[in-house]
Amino acid sequence: MIDGVDHIVILAPEIEAGTAVYAALLGRAPDWRAVSDTGAATALFQLGNTALELVAPSGHGASAEHLRARITEEGPGLKSLAFRSTDIAGDHRAMSRLALSPTAVEEALSEDMAREARRTWRSFRVPPEHTAGIRWFFVAPEEGALEPAEVPLGHVHALDHFVINTPNPDRAMALYGAKLGLRLALDRSAPEWGVRLIFFRTGGLTVEIAHRLGQGEDAAGPDNFWGLTWRVGDIEAAHDRLAGLGFNVSDVRTGRRAGTRVFTVRDGTMGVPTLFISGGVD
């Protein structure tokens, strides 16, 4: 059973530069740093309702070469969704029954670079050809699960929502609703914005599926894991903090959701469209 999004993955060309960017953007240091024996460097930022994991090649192992090839082919940016499972064997059976061809459940271990600490988990993945191009992982944390640190109001404490663009909204409804089992919270066409919005809720965050009205439906076209909206307690403090760090930010404005205020980070986010939000329902 899925009870939230364990983490989202951004693929970075180089781990130190990527970590510096997101430590500044989020206003918090990474909670975990590791390098695998096969050359995958990771930095994990644990938030209140999910985590952000940066992954980059390091050295010349098999994982490093695979990651470099993906960056060359696809570019850096948002790549994967890892759903948190409370029953990894049951979820694996469910995905098999739904003909999504999950890989075998595997055990994994990570050791932090800077301290004597370790995390373990069990996981499997669903190939992207069965999920409209978005990589799905299912993760059951075991030893060493991380807890979020308290941060000032102008720093990021949670992920409000992420956006997946789809050319086929009915397929997305079937994947994220009927097959994955997420709770449907909204399905609305908004001609004034030129978009149909489908919201699913899980674990205190929103999965937003967006379909551009007027573009028609492409039954076979892939979905695109597009952007992130970070939640802060004080939007003005967050705006001032990022502007002071040299980020190119828009003015603070009223959000589409009642009671919210937002601003956009225009660039400097490794190609990830980025919004900050405060107010409304957390």
How would you characterize this protein structure?
This protein is of the alpha+beta class and 282 residues long. The protein folds into two domains: 2-141, 2,3-Dihydroxybiphenyl 1,2-Dioxygenase, domain 1 (Roll); 156-279, Roll (2,3-Dihydroxybiphenyl 1,2-Dioxygenase, domain 1). Helices cover 20% and strands 41% of the residues. It contains five helices and 16 strands. It has helices at residues 15-26, 62-74, 88-97, 169-179, 235-244, and strands spanning 2-11, 32-35, 40-46, 51-57, 77-85, 106-111, 118-126, 135-141, 156-165, 183-190, 195-202, 205-212, 224-232, 253-254, 260-265, 274-279. The chain has an eight-stranded mixed sheet with strand order 2-3-4-1-5-8-7-6. The longest helix is centred in the first third of the chain and has 13 residues, at 62-74. The protein is globular. The mean pLDDT is 95.
Here the CATH topology of the largest domain equals 2,3-Dihydroxybiphenyl 1,2-Dioxygenase, domain 1
Task: Give me the CATH superfamily of the largest domain.
Answer: 2,3-Dihydroxybiphenyl 1,2-Dioxygenase, domain 1
Percent range of helical residues: 10-25%
Number of domains: 2
CATH class group of the largest domain: Alpha Beta
CATH architecture of the largest domain: Roll
In one word, what is the shape? globular
The strand line-up of the biggest sheet is 2-3-4-1-5-8-7-6
**Radius of gyration, Cα only, in angstroms?**
19 Å
Q: Note poorly predicted spans.
A: none
Specify the structural class: alpha+beta
Count every beta strand, where a strand is a DSSP E run of 2 or more residues: 16
Measure the end-to-end span. Answer: 23 Å
Strand content: 35-45%
